Amino acid sequence: MSTTEQSFSGFQDESNPTGQYMGGVKDILDSVYEQLIKNDTRTFTYAETKFFKMWYDNQTAEVQEKTKELVKAGRLDLVNGGWSSPDEATTTYDALIDNFMIGQQWLYKTFEHHSKVSWQLDALGVSSGYARLAKDVGFDMLYYAKVNLAERK
Q: pTM of the full predicted structure?
């Protein structure tokens, strides 16, 4: 397990005999930004608003402005809009609403952006209540992965 800061910044994995460096979200976003700037045909979709804010807040004014342009052009697609991707099967309705509100408010204040797609790629559970809430907060689409094997058959 790692802390939020370790997940963002990366860390040396002391449990691994080689002491391997475990890359962080910052490394991913740095390389994505670099590639989006280099090649105007590329796009990227990202869902974790908390980590994105951590990255964005540590950028120069120039990088922040270019990031706003990428979002406005749809080349950097900020989906889900929640502060984090929630475990929608076990959390409370109020916690889900708070999660959406915090993330969506920051996205709108910073980019004048409202996510229209809820993208749950690593959900540990999916509930019909979450799907209804996603519709109620303004999402047009809901995508998720990790379907139970029994459900696929």
A: 0.82
